[in-house]
Specification:
The protein has a three-stranded antiparallel beta sheet with strand order 5-6-7, with no helix packed on it. It has a two-stranded antiparallel sheet with strand order 1-4. With 258 residues, it is mainly α. α2 packs antiparallel against α3 (106-130). It has six helices and seven strands, in the order αββββααααβαββ. The model has no long low-confidence stretch (mean pLDDT 89).
């Protein structure tokens, strides 16, 4: 993969690059000895960084590229769009089936718009780093990348960021309390081998994780919003409520069912 900037886009239309222009970029930026033998398709690509001010307007919801566009650096667009859809889908399902109040849908914008904004910023930084023009700047970039990418913590953080499994919703309006819990409320709960995935089934449901069975009256009050079979937490000492999308909704100490 060769990435090269052709300068600021400007307003004037620009013709797609021909084989000669691309070969010149290869000669200028490549390691040498690379020859372009066949140009199948060429077009002008302009990077846009845009985001709508609201993901919800009445009965209209925007997700994916309709809500945010940015540089393809890091290949974040697909994961971000799919997570938009997952976040919205379980909320729409519960509201449309009369199991949750319509106000639940307001949390879609509150949770996903900050994520889209962060992805736009991150992809923009990656693009700027990839397209540094000065030789001194490129040398510093390459040295730092070689040093940092060899560190385990940096590698893990990069994987969590690029795959977006590290995304959480700590400031969501639908979060409950998290009293002295080992995990931050709104954080993603990793799937557990052998367990049914969170939210699986025809109707998305919340899941209780506890070492003790919940009071029957609590299950009766929550009705179809919650999975009828609580899951064991292996002596964690906490009661955890997990959202259908696998994020922690609340956590309290064992016995604190109120």
């Amino acid at each position: 993969r060769i990435i090269a900037s052709d300068g600021p886009a400007g307003d004037a239309p620009r013709a797609p690059p021909d084989a000669q222009a691309i070969q010149a970029a290869l000669d200028r930026r490549g390691p040498g000895g690379m020859a372009l033998t066949a140009l199948i398709w060429s077009s002008v690509f302009r990077i846009n960084e845009r985001q709508v001010p609201r993901y919800r307007e009445g009965r209209v919801f925007l997700a994916g590229d309709a809500a945010h566009v940015h540089s393809p650096a890091g290949a974040q667009g697909m994961n971000t769009g799919m997570q938009d859809a997952v976040n919205l889908a379980w909320k729409l399902a519960l509201v449309c089936r009369g199991l949750a109040r319509p106000a639940l849908l307001d949390s879609y914008d509150a949770e996903r718009r900050p994520v889209g904004s962060a992805v736009i910023a991150a992809s923009g930084r990656l693009t700027k780093a990839a397209l540094i023009e000065s030789s001194a700047g490129r040398a510093v970039r390459d040295s730092l990348a070689h040093l940092l990418l060899g560190l385990g913590p940096v590698q893990r953080a990069l994987v969590d960021t690029m795959t977006e499994v590290g995304i959480g919703y700590p400031h969501s309006p639908i979060n409950g309390p998290a009293r002295h819990a080992p995990r931050a409320v709104g954080s993603r709960m990793p799937p557990i081998d052998g367990e049914t995935p969170y939210g699986a089934g025809d109707t998305p449901r919340f899941v209780l994780r506890s070492d003790e069975p919940p009071p029957p009256e609590l299950l009766g009050r929550l009705g179809p919003l919650i999975d009828r079979a609580p899951r064991c937490t292996a002596g964690s000492g906490f009661i955890e409520l997990v959202r259908p999308d696998g994020h922690l909704a609340l956590a309290v100490q064992a016995g604190d069912w109120a």
